[in-house]
Amino acid sequence: MLRPLSSARLQFTSRFWRHSQRHVHHKHPIQPPHHVQSLAFSSTPARRFDSLMDTTNFTETQLTVRSAIATLCSKFPPSYWQHHDATETDPTDFHAALAADGWLGIALPESLGGSGLGISEATIMMQTIAESGAGMAGAQAIHANVYATQPLAKFGRREQVEETIPRIVDGTWRTCFGVTEPNAGLDTLRLSTTATRTQDGSAYAISGQKIWITCAQVARKMILLARTKAREEVGKPSEALSLFCIDLDRNSPGLSMRKIRKMGGRAVDANEVFFDNYVVPSSALIGEEGQGFKIILHGMNAERCLLAGEALGLGYAALNRAAKYARERVVFERPIGMNQGIAHPLADAYMKLEAAKLATYHAAQLYDASTTDPSIKQDAVGIAANSAKYVAAEAAFTACERAVLTHGGMGYAAEYDVERWLRECFVPRIAPVSREMVLNFMSEKVLGLPRSY
């Protein structure tokens, strides 16, 4: 399932902080996380994570990442997430803790403050965060930092990248991803937010609206997709879109936000963001004008892998909690787990999660391998990543629903966490692409059926 990493990749913890001495943007040099530094790859096994997931065939690097993240997350127990969910307040100190240990750059180049690891390691990090009890809220607090920076790192100008990414990695700046619009939905090629060049060419004026922008309230930067030409002015609709890395300067005219109250993941904000001739310098453009859609495709498959991992974490957390309750809860003088009406649905949920796990880490491995192996086609990566996102989201929903039902009336109580996880498990079923659009993609790309949309 998971191909062993090269010996160079296995040495990532010694390289993880070494590069920090070379970057002037870090206020404080990144120090090796003590809980990672003490793990010797050659002989010391990673600490066992309290999980139902079988970790056979995971690489030593992946297990070390999992152990280190589990240790960090243990400082933020479920009560922490219950509080932030109830008060709808950002988990700022959680984000800071991950930044302090250098984890926000896990899949970014060393030269930019990252660790130089792959999406496989980033996926297991995101899974472990969700599985720790943080759920989707904990994962979404750093989600954009991991995947939205990928297109910037690959296609941005040197000065643009060196100014921005190290500050995101060290936690100085947070970022968000601005693509979705209320009148376009999943039809990205029809988005209407415009970025119009000023007469002297030194800036763009942005006008339009974005919606469901996670962490916009706390973000300093936004990776923004906007229209720089009308559809009829270009040969392909995709050539009318450009990608920008913009400042979210709330003191400048033309920018406003409205927070959206939502069902789950309340610890992280979701927003409508409004632009009205909001001016950004032309240097905010990522890559070439008109290539924005192609550029964001670079990050989409990575995001699907990460979201699949987050869904897995949510599902395993819920199932673990349900199994524990079923062993301990006694009704009619016997633990309820003795009843097949309880045991069988939970066993079925476990097998669904394990199957989704195989799909998820196959997709992540394929994504990583495709960055250096030209024989791996992007269609194959897309099929694997979309499949993983779909099956992991469905497995998580099954586990979370059954966890609530296993708890009976107490499943409705906030203190048991399973109701929070059930509310959050709808996110990977809906975003970043719906189940139905994944099925459309598979029908067309795999089965060769006529396109239905």
TrEMBL record:
Keywords assigned by UniProt, alphabetized: FAD, Flavoprotein, Oxidoreductase
Domain Acyl-CoA oxidase/dehydrogenase middle as annotated: residue spans: 176-277
One BP term from GO: fatty acid beta-oxidation using acyl-CoA dehydrogenase
InterPro entries documented for this protein: Acyl-CoA_dehydrogenase, Acyl-CoA_Oxase/DH_mid-dom, Acyl-CoA_Oxase/DH_mid-dom_sf, AcylCo_DH-like_C, AcylCo_DH/oxidase_C, AcylCoA_DH/ox_N, AcylCoA_DH/ox_N_sf, AcylCoA_DH/oxidase_NM_dom_sf
This protein's record includes keyword Oxidoreductase: yes
Recorded GO MF terms: acyl-CoA dehydrogenase activity; flavin adenine dinucleotide binding
Cofactor(s) essential for the protein: FAD
Bilayer-crossing regions: none
Domain Acyl-CoA dehydrogenase/oxidase N-terminal: 59-171
Gene Ontology CC: cytoplasm
Ranges for domain Acyl-CoA dehydrogenase/oxidase C-terminal: 290-445
CDD domains, sorted: ACAD (cd00567)
One protein family per Pfam: Acyl-CoA_dh_M
Stated family: Belongs to the acyl-CoA dehydrogenase family.
Name assigned to this protein: Acyl-CoA dehydrogenase NM domain-like protein
Organism: Westerdykella ornata
